[in-house]
């Protein structure tokens, strides 16, 4: 697998973790009382509280591992001809062309 495919795979993994995190928050977040007109929300069980307290730590660890792996893959990308300064010069030239259009 080439490095670009590995980068795409890693982006997909990070997106998967983020997507599941939002879903978990929606599913497991304790209810909140929105107004005095609503009854008190029910109490959560000890098991539910343990899940809610442990899951974010595990998710954050997985997310950070994914981000670090992505950074390592980006660092392994070869530099183009001319290095960073040539790339910045090329970007500046393209920006001028876009502005002139």
Overview of the structural elements:
InterPro entries: Med7/Med21-like, Mediator_Med21. It comes from Riccia sorocarpa. Belongs to the Mediator complex subunit 21 family. Component of the Mediator complex. Its main location: nucleus. The radius of gyration is 23 Å and the shape is elongated. The mean pLDDT is 83. It contains three helices and no strands. Helix 1 (3-28) packs antiparallel against helix 2. The protein is mostly helical. It has one domain. It has helices spanning 3-28, 46-76, 83-100.
Please outline what is shown here.
The chain is 74% helix and 0% strand. It has helices spanning 3-28, 46-76, 83-100.
Summarize the helices and strands and which ones pair or pack.
Elements: H1 3-28, H2 46-76, H3 83-100
Structural features:
101 residues; 3 helices; mainly alpha
Structural class estimated from helices and strands:
mainly alpha
Question: Roughly how much helix do the residues carry, as a percent range?
Answer: over 70%
The N- to C-terminal Cα distance equals 39 Å
Low-confidence stretches: none
Number of strands: 0
Strand residue content: under 5%
Main location: nucleus
Subunit structure: Component of the Mediator complex.
Pfam family, one: Med21
Subcellular location: Nucleus
């Amino acid at each position: 697998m080439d490095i670009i495919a590995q980068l795409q795979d890693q982006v997909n993994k990070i997106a998967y973790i983020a997507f599941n995190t939002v879903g978990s928050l929606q599913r497991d977040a304790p209810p909140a009382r929105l107004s005095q007109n609503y009854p008190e929300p029910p109490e959560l069980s000890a098991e539910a509280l343990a899940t809610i307290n442990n899951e974010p730590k595990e998710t954050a660890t997985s997310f950070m591992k994914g981000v670090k792996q992505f950074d390592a893959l980006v660092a392994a990308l070869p530099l183009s001809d001319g290095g960073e300064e040539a790339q910045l010069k090329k970007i500046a030239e393209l920006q001028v062309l876009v502005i002139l259009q």
